[in-house]
Structure formats: C-alpha cells, structure tokens
Amino acid sequence: PKVLLLDATHSVNSYRWPLFIILVQNEYGMGVPVCFMVSSASTENEIHLFLKSFYNFIGAAHFDARAIMVDCDVAEINAINNFASQNNLSTVPILCFFHVLQAIERWMHQHHISSDVMEKVKSVINVARFSRTAENFEKCWSDLHHYLDQHNKIELGKYLENNWFKREWAERWS
Known about the structure:
By secondary structure, the protein is an alpha/beta fold. The protein is 51% helix and 17% strand. It has helices spanning 44-58, 74-86, 97-110, 115-129, 134-150, 154-163, 167-170; strands at residues 3-9, 19-25, 31-38, 67-70, 92-95. Strands 3-2-1-4-5 form a 5-stranded mixed β-sheet.
C-alpha cells in the first residue's frame, strides 16, 4: 500500500499501556489492521521500533509506503522521519485532517475563543485544505491572519502559524 495509517489507543489494559496499530486500506476503502504493538511507553523510540519491526517482517522489497498518516503526535511524526531516513525511504508523515481540526478546536476552547471566531477559523482552514497551489494556501493564511489581527486574536494567530500553517505541514494535511 502507498499509504499506511498509524494510530494508538491508550489505556487498553490494567497497566494503562498504549496499543499501536498499523492499518492499510482495502479495495473497499476500509481500514484493515495489519500489525499491533502493546508497549509500556509511547515514545519516539518505541514507535520507531514498531515501524522497523513491521518493515523487517514484510521485507524491504514489499515496503512501498510513500506516506504514513498519523494524528498530531510529535513522537509518531519524528519516529516516521527517523525510520525513513535510516532506511533510505521517501516515506513521509501526513496528518489526519480530522485530528488537525480537533487539535485546533481543542486549543480554541481552552483559550475561550468566541464561537464566531472559531467558525471563521474552521471555515478558512477547510478552504485552505483544498488549495491547489501554495499561493492559494498562503492567501487563505494571510486573510485569516488579517481577520485575527482585526479581532485582537494575536495569540491564536501565533498558535496557528507555529503549529499548522507552515507550508511543509499544510502540504501534508490529508
């Protein structure tokens, strides 16, 4: 498969350890779990070991993933980057848009952002998501940044710019 999905569910046993899953998409568009790992930690090293074990199991000749979709977990992203680098692969992490939007919404709720500003942010992000060119994406960001400045939401603008509106990440929203 060209895209793998990597996800974790936490607290699945009495020790509250995470369960990591690698999924592939079948011909019907459904996710099919193909590899599992239960670990006492969810650090970059453990995730890297999981990816390496999967890679070794299926064999380099059969590993053709161009991307691994993850939520917004930094350890997962770093593990994918290191795994790809160490194995001379062009595999890159891509971010699940659902989780991107969920993280942004969570941040806005925690910082008591008004519902009208939240709706504007979500609307612009949804438009930016489907930008076909870097120029269109940057225009969405510029318009949103201007809107946030006008509404004195400088902190929100910085959060979005530092975490989500970097070109290298926006190109990897899925």
